[in-house]
Design a protein that fits this description.
CATH topology of the largest domain: TIM Barrel
Radius of gyration: 22 Å
Number of strands: 20
Strand order of the largest sheet: 18-17-20-15-14-13-1-16-19
Low-confidence stretches: 1-16
CATH superfamily of the largest domain: Glycosidases
Number of helices: 11
Shape: globular
Mean pLDDT: 95
Oligomer: single chain
Distance between the termini: 40 Å
């Protein structure tokens, strides 16, 4: 939501030294049902899953997917419940002729120019897909950024400058839908069905620079593709649902850009376009379309008062279209310049970036009532804040050379865990699909800049999970009400989901830390 300026007063309150914060839960006041937390295999898993030593691949898979614990009860991984499989467009086979300079951002395609399918392609991604299923990941989503190059207008996996339309040959909409359905059917026959397909990704951007695969698309084109895809899935008797959106910003998802002082060119206001019964593009009646709109939290998070205000405005706009319409935050990494961690440049394995993101997770769940929260890419081999797990060549102890120019990283390297990985795990490992977010309040009121944030969730068996985020530089204690002990899992500068126990009336919350409390 670049350029959106929404001033909003934020709550604040003085902390009373020695007194625990009072956290009040109301399990009977229920909000959204959670669908899960996820990440994508985009760009890096293609090499790591195919070429890296098996021991390192399996370690990475455990970190991402495992729900197991060690002998002391500490989680071995963050237990992602959603895995996003990138269905690339064929730029890898084109090589340098693809026009995409970075080899890591090219991708193979199952379909060749003669209409033949080669299911051995995307080998590295398929390895991680099988590992995710082995570890019990509950939900799988497939997403393309662009149509196969054999079906594109310009023979490329990215758009031509000046052309804002879907990069698809005239008359090829049904062929593209059939291709997507063929992929879905293949994986279902292989025992690896996809629960969801998201057919268009960030259509509001022009994707004409050759930085990566991508295509713009107008709302009317998206609607035409979704209708064709729904019919193709139905004809094959598949159960895959279609998730509409992947808007480039949350503003594009539910607001008219003209309302924000920006041009409106038919690629915004997706909620009204696709889920208002009065819209000529209404998709809600299609049998395979899920009642979910997805969007990305880019360019809407700084400063913090605007982070809060932006989400309130978007939530109100979506509720005005249909109060029952679900929302997914389906992609995020650090892009926006800010006063806390600077911006996307330079990787950060520590708590500063982890807490910056934890605040965004909290507000996406608590304000826009996101049913799912999904990080952009699971692995990163660049000096940028876009990964959960980082790869470098290990040439300098705790760090090493990174970037697309380090060709050896296609075959092996060092694996670095980030605090962001484990902080996401404070949510993903314990807030499981089907749990319901419930009312949770803190007294005295807390600042979203440097206070304590809390959300709570209820399981079907009555168990409750509370996630506490301490943005301050001082240790706090939280009184969750009641007697007895609760299990706690702490991520801090010196702990990664460290298991412990604490009195429910005095849960310790270290400075600059995230603590998940599991109440029976």
């Amino acid at each position: 939501m670049a350029g959106v300026l929404l001033a909003l007063a934020t709550p604040g309150g003085e902390l009373h030294a020695g007194d625990p914060l009072k956290v009040t839960l109301d399990p009977e006041t229920r909000y959204q049902t959670m669908d899960g937390f996820g990440a994508s295999d985009a760009w890096r898993c293609q090499f790591v899953g195919k070429n890296w030593p098996l021991e390192k691949r399996e370690r990475i898979a455990r970190l991402l997917f495992s729900k197991e614990v060690d002998g002391d009860g500490n989680p071995q991984g963050i237990g992602l419940s959603i895995w996003r499989f990138y269905l690339s467009a064929g730029s890898a086979e084109q090589g340098r002729d693809s026009g995409i300079r970075n080899v890591w951002r090219r991708g193979e395609c199952f379909l060749d120019g003669d209409g033949r399918y080669d299911w051995s392609k995307l080998e590295g991604q398929q390895w991680f897909l099988r590992q995710a299923r082995k570890h019990g990941v509950e939900r799988f989503l497939v997403f393309p950024n662009a149509p196969p190059v054999s079906l594109s207008k310009n023979g490329k996996a990215f758009a031509t400058k000046g052309d804002l339309h879907l990069n698809l040959k005239p008359g090829a909409m049904n062929a593209y839908a059939d291709y997507l359905a063929e992929v879905l059917e293949h994986f279902e026959k292989e025992g690896m069905p996809f629960d969801d397909v998201s057919p268009v990704n960030e259509p509001q951007w022009n994707w004409d620079e050759g930085d990566q695969e991508g295509t713009p698309a107008f709302n009317a084109e998206i609607a035409e593709l979704v209708k064709a895809l729904s019919a193709a899935i139905e004809r094959r008797g598949l159960k895959t649902g279609i998730v509409v959106g992947e808007a480039g910003t949350i503003g594009h998802a539910a607001l008219r850009m003209a309302e924000l002082g920006q041009p409106s060119d038919g690629r915004d206001d997706l909620a009204r376009a696709f889920f208002s019964r009065d819209s000529p593009l209404y998709l809600g009646k299609l049998p395979r379309v899920e009642p979910i709109l997805s969007a990305h939290s880019y360019h809407s998070v700084w400063p913090v008062d605007q982070q809060v205000g932006n989400r309130r405005r978007v939530a109100d706009a979506m509720a005005a279209v249909d109060p029952a319409l679900g929302y997914w935050m389906s992609e995020y990494c650090i892009l926006q310049e800010n006063g806390e961690i600077g911006g996307g440049g330079r990787r950060d394995l520590g708590m500063d970036t982890a807490l910056y993101v934890a605040r965004i997770i909290h507000h996406d769940l608590a304000i826009t009532r996101a049913r799912s929260w999904q990080w952009w890419t699971a692995l990163s081999q660049v000096d940028y804040k876009d990964g959960l797990i980082y790869l470098d060549d290990g040439s300098d102890g705790t760090t090493g050379r990174m970037g697309p120019q380090v060709e050896s990283l296609q075959r092996d390297g060092a694996v670095r865990e980030s605090k962001l990985l484990w902080t996401l795990g404070n949510y993903s490992r314990f807030v499981r699909p089907g749990m319901v977010r419930v009312k949770c309040e803190i007294e005295p009121g807390q600042s979203p800049v440097d206070g304590v944030l809390a959300t709570a969730y209820r399981a079907a068996d009555g168990g409750r999970v509370v996630v506490l985020v301490n943005l301050s530089r001082e240790e706090q204690r939280c009184d969750l009400g009641g007697d007895g002990e609760a299990r706690t899992y702490t991520t801090s500068a010196d702990a990664n989901l460290k298991a412990g126990k604490a009195a429910v009336a005095a849960v310790p919350l270290p400075a600059r830390a995230v603590v998940t409390v599991c109440l029976e």
